Each structure stands twice: as C-alpha cells, then as structure tokens.
Amino acid sequence: MIRPLALAAALTCMAGAGAAQVADLRAHDALRVCADPAAAPMSMEDGSGFENRIAELIGQKLGLPVRYTWFPQGTGFIRKTLRAGACDVVIGYAQGDEMVQNTNHYYTSAYGIVTRKDGPLAGVDTLSDPALKDQPIGVVAGTPPATNLARAGLAKNMRGWDLFVDRRVENPVGDMLAQVKSGDLGAAVIWGPLAGPLVKPDPELQFTPLLKEAEGPRMFFRITMGVRPDEQEWKRQLNSLIRRHQDEIDAILHDAGVPLIDDYGKALKEAGG
C-alpha cells in the first residue's frame, strides 16, 4: 500500500520562503480532492466509493462543495495532482509515506485472505496454515503478504498481479476475486479496504483479516489523509474534523464493508466500537 519514497529530497526545498507559496495553493471555495477515477471500492468518478462518501462528509462539515482532480494512482499521481496545486487533499493515504504530510490516521485495516465460504480453505486465518500447501494463491506483487507466503514455502503457489495499473482498463482485485469464485485460485490475499467491500455483498466469498502473522512484515496499516508539506494549519483543521466526526467516518467505513481493526493490528473493531 505504501507508495515509493520518491521526491523525499524535494521536501526540503519547500521550506522557508517557499512555505508561503505552498500554503497559497489551497483553495477556500471548495474541498479539492485528488483521487483515482476508477479505484473501486475506494474512489470512483460516479461518487460511489467510500472515500467519496468521506470527502462529502468533510466537505459538508466545512460548508464547501467537493471538487475532484482525477488521475490514475501510480507513478506521478501525487506530483501531478497534490504537488501541482490542482487539489488539496488525498482522502486515503498510508501513514508514514514521505510523499505527503499525513494527518492523524482515521482508520486502521489489514491484509486478509479471501476464500470461498464453502471451500476447504474457509478456516484459514494465517499464511503458515498447512491447508494452503499446493493451493494456487493470488497476491499483489511486492506487498507484505507476498513475503510471508514465500517465507512459508509457498512461492511456487503464488500468482502475482500488479496493483498500480490504470484501473479504467484493468481490474486486478476483481480478477483475483473472480478466480477464487471459479476455483482457478484457492485463495487471494488482498488489502482489506480493497477486498472487504467487494466481498461483503457476495454470498460465495469471505474475507478473513490476517491478525495472527507472528513473523515477517506487518499486515496492518494506519490510513490518513494526505496534504502538502508545510500546510500545518490545513492539517490541523482536518485533524480536528477527524477527531470530532470519527463515529460518522467509522459508520461510512463499516457500511462499505471495510474491515476495521484496532491500532495495533490485533483485533477487529466492531461497528459502534
């Protein structure tokens, strides 16, 4: 989930006298959101993604209309949207990425395993489970679960997909879920906010968060909003909105089917909890 730490050196160039110029990029007549137009279930140009709903909530609390700059996530996304001054906030961004300044996190989620509810892998909740042996497993290349699958001796089982593609023409998560349903894959290991909402309405599939991985890279991440470096007042304003309206944000996420977990990646966070 975390994007490459490109442009980190450029952050220092935006200090001092440049800070005022950066702050001046923010619009005050609209909530200008940087978003992917085809990143279902997160953001969609038709407004149906859960990040669209959160943007509408933030815009409502600010008394501003929401206006989007659309650009496919991947190489150049931040540079050509947020950093170019075309928009002022990315609604979902992993904590700790240096390409943006992070707000306080507003949810935590985890990678998990998608299986058929009536299949032989329905009880699997860790990637070291012997039941996964000799099963074809879909995974996004380069993500933390790929490392743990390899550590468990399942490298030969992995079927890799790229995530940062133009999802107007490619659908890696949808492809993996379809192959789990058809039996071409025994399971797929996917980031919860991508898989959970797509699995929620499907009577044949289930999503199980990976909360028991004892070794390897962590499977959970805290998600923030991203703003430009040095826009401290804007960050503080968003932090205040997140704090005061966390229950409403949680309700949107739960309704969408995003698996929410505690901040330490140990347990599911129930609705209203």
Draw up the topology in text:
Layout: H1 18-23, E1 31-35, E2 38-39, E3 43-44, H2 50-62, E4 66-70, H3 77-80, E5 89-94, E6 101-102, E7 107-116, E8 137-140, H4 144-151, E9 158-161, H5 172-182, E10 187-191, H6 192-199, E11 205-209, E12 220-227, H7 232-244, H8 246-256
Parallel strand pairs: 1-4, 1-5, 8-9, 8-10
Antiparallel strand pairs: 2-3, 5-12, 6-12, 7-10, 7-11, 7-12
Short recap of the structure:
The protein is α/β, with parallel strands linked by helices and 273 residues long. The protein contains 8 helices and 12 strands.
Tell me what portion of residues adopts beta-strand conformation.
15-25%
Strand elements, count: 12
In N-to-C order, the SSE pattern is HEEEHEHEEEEHEHEHEEHH
Write down the overall mean pLDDT: 89
> Count of DSSP helices?
8
What gap, in angstroms, lies between the N and C termini? 25 Å
Major sheet characteristics: 10 strands, mixed
* Named CATH architecture of the largest domain: 3-Layer(aba) Sandwich
CATH class of the largest domain reads Alpha Beta
Shape: elongated
Here the CATH topology of the largest domain equals: D-Maltodextrin-Binding Protein, domain 2
The helix content, as a percent range, equals: 25-40%
What is the alpha-carbon Rg in Å?
19 Å
Assign the CATH superfamily of the largest domain: Periplasmic binding protein-like II
**How many structural domains are formed by the residues?**
2
Derived from helix and strand composition plus strand pairing, the structural class reads alpha/beta
The unreliable regions are 1-23
